[in-house]
Amino acid sequence: MSKSDASREGEASDDTTLLDAEVARLLEEGGLGRSPTLERLLRFLHQRARENQPPKEIEIADAVFDRGDADMSSDASVRVHIHRLRRKLDDYYAGPAQNRPWRLHLPKGSYLLGLTPLAEEEAPPPAVEPPTIAAPRPRRILPVLMAAAALVAGLAGGYWYGGITPLSRMRDTPFWHPITASDRPATIILGDYYIFGERTPDGTVDRMVREFSVNSAQDLQGFKDMGGDPQGRFVDLGLTYLPVGVGPAIRAISPILAGDKAALQVEPISQMDAQAPKNPLVYLGYISGLGALRTPVFQGSRFTVGDSYDELIDRVSGMHYMGSSHLEETNEPGQDYALIASFRAFNGNRVIAIAGTRDAALMAAAEFVARPATLAQLDSIAAHDQSFEALVAIPSLKNVGLDARLLGAWPRKDPTWAAQRPDKFPDALSAKP
């Protein structure tokens, strides 16, 4: 063996030792949280990196997910979990491991795990291109059980992200401080949807109906009084439902809100008294589910809703942002959007609204404000308890959101809270901010 060959072999051995040590340290410190799947994925990628053999997607599907016969053109499992692993690594090295000389790295377009100096900053991602305006599409929302209160109660710990990020730091950020510093516990408002039954002539309820202008039993009675039910078939069943993205959104933010004060309150928007919010509020839901909060959110905003609930229009720039990924039967990523608004109610209580066009947008926006690395992008606009709003774009695949990207953040006015809510939503586009 020549001296040069021996030297290269020694360098490779040193690199492998560093890689082994970094993987072991991350797993020991809980950097991946409590996900056995992500741990299996990391261990497999680690082994292939030691062999200097970049794995193919089908090899990962076989070794990690036991799905060697999967059609990679239609099965996004590997890509979604690789994305989640990259995100966990970013969180870990932005938090407790930020002073390490090296970090684990999965370069874009490759599955070969490696080490890179932590001081080296990656090139910023390309700017989001404004989307073209698509035709409005009908809504499709899946109901979920309202077990939110139990979920919140189980997440009120002092650490999160697998035990590595002190929550006190998140609670003191400019974004969350107006909520967490209040002497009153926050109320999480969930964007639920009221549904009612339709009876057959013999009195049997054989169909559930969702009408966007009917959001409560009182609305239903008014709807009937105005001639909306000429045959008298509609009946209140006391039922509402939630989008599936609400659960993960609660899980993302509730540890930040659950401090030493009284237990968090969870309330559906259909039961909220919008005239007198006694506590700080955090809304989680679709833009279409804002209900009684829709006037406060859009009054004083630069945005309005377009011809469907999936479209936001910037009335200052004239830009249209149309979410489109949720109905596309394609393997190409689509794009969704979320509006993040923070303002004061008339009595001084802080209101934060995290409202997405669809599930992918809602979940990704909640994670955006629950992760130190991304939340820091709002520090400047949120400073000094300023009221503001931000728009984020979310590339998504089969309604699974990837990283939310900040498109912009702007100061906004506090609402007067006195305006009557519109009869129909979306609102007229002629309203001024």
TrEMBL record:
Keywords: Membrane, Transmembrane, Transmembrane helix. It comes from Novosphingobium sediminicola. The chain crosses the membrane at residues 141-161. This is OmpR/PhoB-type domain-containing protein.
